[in-house]
Every structure is written in structure tokens, then in C-alpha cells.
Amino acid sequence: MPRIPAILASALLCFALTACGVGGDTATPEVLGDAPPALTISTPSLPAGSENEVYPATQLTAVNAQGAITWSIDSGALPPGITLDASGLIEGTPTAQGYFAFLVRANDGVASATKSLGIAVDTVGLVVQDGLVGGEAWTTRALTLAAAGQTGDVTFSVVTNGSAGSLSNENPTAGTATWTTGATGGLGVTDTLRVTETASGNSFDLTLEVMPDPTTTHTAAFGSSDVWWIDPSLKFGSHPYQTDVHAALVTVGMRAAASTGNGTQADQLAELYFRVEMLRRVNAMFLRNADGTPGAQGLPITVPFEEPGSPFTKPNAAGFLPGSTTRYSQMALIDGTSSGVLGTAYVDSTTNALHENDTTQGNFELGTFVNQIASIFNIAYSNPLANNPVNAADVDALRALLYQLPSPGGRYATLQSMGEGFARTVAAVVAHEVGHSLGLGHTSPPVTGSIMNASASIHPTATYSFTSGALNQLGGALPGVGRTSSQTAGRRGLRPTPFPAGGVRVCNCRYEPLRK
């Protein structure tokens, strides 16, 4: 990728990551609560209708609402003659035939949710119920297909197959099937799938653009590696967004301030770009290749894009699995604006030798980082996106950044410099806190460019790394399988400063004036 414009090199983000104990010497880390269940639209599908006949009135439903719901159409359109009122009632008399797809939104005043639905009038339709990422099909991913408005059995067929995908799990009566995209993706690569109603012969074609999966190697698939998964779904505090990632991205202008739920296409692409770029930076800091593969001297640690499954078994909230070999560690993105805590790390102790706690409760022993850095980032960078966030005009540029395509113009350079700058900033905090959780103290005395410095100046073109001593220590601490209490004790002896009682190290943040 092109390098970030040099003009930003003079804008330094300075924050202190100071070693300190618990109690009166430092701010107390946030006690994490379980995120409330997400608002979810529960209407599975909508009944079919007939032209010039009264449509069967249907009430949209949702679960986990925190207040009265207001319903609206985000995109697409209802059939002519059909209306949706704010209470969620769909009624009327359709005056045209066809399949009408739309995105419906439920807003309860605190959060919102969206869902793709459709109404078939004297025909049949086809939708993807599950498997799209940011509204797009990615290579080698399974998509759940569902017929809409069917009367009797249907059949599925492939019209065009640009990705070299495959059709499976066809259920003519239920009107469902699975389409697994192939390994070929890119601009102009499309798959077209057809559903046909057996009795009437009515059919509908669904065309999907297939893009290469930018996360295919960011997986928890590297054998005996320790796994740190950065959970993007948690929410703490009173901000109006569904997750703390959303709140942080709104702060830095990589999400529109008015967006809730899944957000707009631009919001979703910006979030995907940030998450992928952050992983690229984290991997480099642990000597891995930017795509997540081990590299010649990479440490045995993985930071996958999606939550790892078997054999990486996730423990129950606030629990841990002593003696287990799951190697599962979770790092959550938590809102710390009320406490001023930038990062918290908990020692990988002898009582939790494999580092498997889930951080959705207050009783946890691993590193977290918070979106306080978003506000600091804006001040340090004079971030132009903060007051002019991503919007529909940025979609092409965001897609180019996500899929590493040539610049299409627009705000490509600005989006790249701010997106990569924020991703690098967050990645430095992640690596710092993982280092703490595996026994590293702050570099004392400080070493230029050390990730474990108590005070770090972060800017887009800076290079951060662990010192050779820190790398040796991390190499002895990883992977989780086979880690022993004697190893843990040995690492403890190497720390420049001991962990305080309870094994907690709190990192408070501050910023300094810009240095020109």
C-alpha cells in the first residue's frame, strides 16, 4: 500500500502507559458488565401478496427492545400500494407484480437493528439470510439462501458462476439452500443464482458480487498458538451505539454520528478496513507477516478476525479453565471515557496459566484496551474525519482500501492516513497490553521505539517493536500449551518492576501538546 503522507509525521500522539499498582495510586479499571442483549428484528419473513388484492396485514416484531420501537425503511422499496407505519404494521393493496426487497430498521431510542426482507407479489424471490460481510459476498464463505413468497416447492440453479462456487443443502419444500462462494473474487466477479417455483414456473435471479476475503489468513489456525481475539461486540457505558467499536469509530469519523445498528454501507466498510488494518499492524509487532501467517521469526501468537472456535474453547463469563489446553484469550474493546483508563493488563498467573478468561465480567485476568484513545487520536492528529465522517461518497475509496485496490480518487488518501493511523495507534496499545499479560513490565530505562515504554509517541510513520530482551521473554511465555508455573515464576523474576498484589497493572493515559 502507498505510504501515509509525510505531512502527518509531525503530529505526534503522546500518551503515558505508566506502571502502577491498584488502590489509591491509580484510577480503578472499569468493572465490566455483560453487554445487554442486542436489539434484533425477529420477523423471519413476510407473506406473499397478489396484485390488486388486499395484502395480509403483518406486524413487524423485534426482541430485546429497551423502549418503544419506531420502524422505517432504510433502502429498497415496498410494493406500490403497500405501506409501513412507524408502529411496524405493513398493510395495503399491491398494484404491481414482482419481488420487492428492502432493508427495514427498528429503533428503540437507544439502539437500532436492520434486516433484509422482501415481499413477493404473484412471483417468487430469493434472498441471502446469512453469510454476507458488510453486505458483500466474500470468497470461500457459505451463504444461506432462502426463497421468498413461494407457493409449494422450489428448485435452485446456477446461472453464472464467476467465483467457481458450489450449491448444496437444497430443501425444495422449505425453500432454502447453501451457496458457498469459490476462491475467485474481485471487481466484476459475479455469481447469479436462480430460484424457480415448481408449480407456476415463476423464477427470480439473485446476482452477487464476490470480493476476495481480506481476512482469510487472519484465523486461529496455527496449531499450538496462543489466541488473542479482539472482541468487537461488547458495550459498556451509556453511549448510544451498539458496541464500543462503533462508539470509537464515530469519534474518529470512521462512522457517521447518526448511525446505529449495522450502519450504512460506508460505515460497515470503514469498520472492516479498520479491523483488518489493525490486525496487520498487531501481527507485524509480533514479527508475524502482515496477513497473519507465521513469518520467518514470528512469535506463536494469533489474533484472528473472527472469534475462534474449536479447539479454542471459550470459557464462561468471568470464568477460567485451569489446566485446560484451549489457549483462548480475549481482549475486549471497552469504553473507558468515564475512568480515563487507557489499558488494563492482568498477569498470566499460575492460577490461570493458559490465559483463558473472558472479560465480560469484572473478575478477569487479561489485557484490555479502551476507546479513550479515539478522543486522544483526534486531538493529536487534528483529524479531518472527526467533523466530516465517512459517507456514501467514500464507498469506492473504502472498498479500495479494504481490498487493497488502486485508488479511485475521492478521499482515498485522507481515509488511508487516518484509518491506518488509528489502526496503528490501537495496535500499539494491544501489543503493549498483551506484553503485560505475559509478564513484561515497562521498558526501564526507556528504549526508542519500544512497545513497552511507559511513554510512547505514536504517529503514522513510526516503527514500534519489542526489545530483544522482551522478545526472548515472550518466546518463553508462548504458546499456552505446555506453559508451566515454573515458566510463569521465571518470567516474573525478569520483570523490571514486580506486579502489584492481585496481578493487575493499570495503564492510565494522558496526551501532550502537539510537537511541530
Structural class: alpha+beta
Radius of gyration: 25 Å
Biggest sheet overview: 6 strands, mixed
How many domain units?
2
Q: Ranges with pLDDT <50 over ≥5 residues?
A: 1-35, 317-324, 346-366, 481-516
Beta-strand level of the residues, as a percent range?
A: 15-25%
Which overall shape is indicated by the principal axes computed on the Cα atoms? globular
The order of strands across the largest sheet is 19-18-20-22-21-24
Total number of helical segments?
7
Distance between the termini: 26 Å
Which key features would you list for this structure?
single chain; 516 residues; alpha+beta; Immunoglobulin-like; 2 domains; six-stranded mixed sheet; four-stranded antiparallel sheet; disordered N terminus; disordered C terminus
Quick overview:
The chain has 516 residues and is an alpha+beta fold. It has 7 helices and 24 strands. The protein is 18% helix and 25% strand.
In words, what does this structure look like?
The protein is an alpha+beta fold and 516 residues long. The chain folds into two domains: 306 residues, no CATH class; 172 residues, Immunoglobulin-like (Sandwich), CATH 2.60.40. 18% of the residues lie in helices and 25% in strands. The protein has seven helices and 24 strands. Strands 19-18-20-22-21-24 form a six-stranded mixed beta sheet, covered by helices on one side. Helix 2 packs parallel to helix 4. The N terminus and C terminus are likely disordered.
What secondary-structure arrangement, pairings included, does this model have?
Elements: E1 13-16, E2 40-41, E3 58-59, E4 62-63, E5 70-76, E6 82-84, E7 89-92, E8 98-107, E9 112-121, E10 125-130, E11 137-138, E12 142-148, E13 154-161, E14 166-171, E15 176-180, E16 190-197, E17 203-211, E18 226-231, H1 244-251, H2 265-285, E19 301-302, E20 328-334, E21 341-346, E22 368-370, H3 372-381, H4 395-402, H5 412-437, E23 455-458, H6 468-477, H7 485-494, E24 504-508
Helix pairs in contact: 2-4, 2-5, 3-5
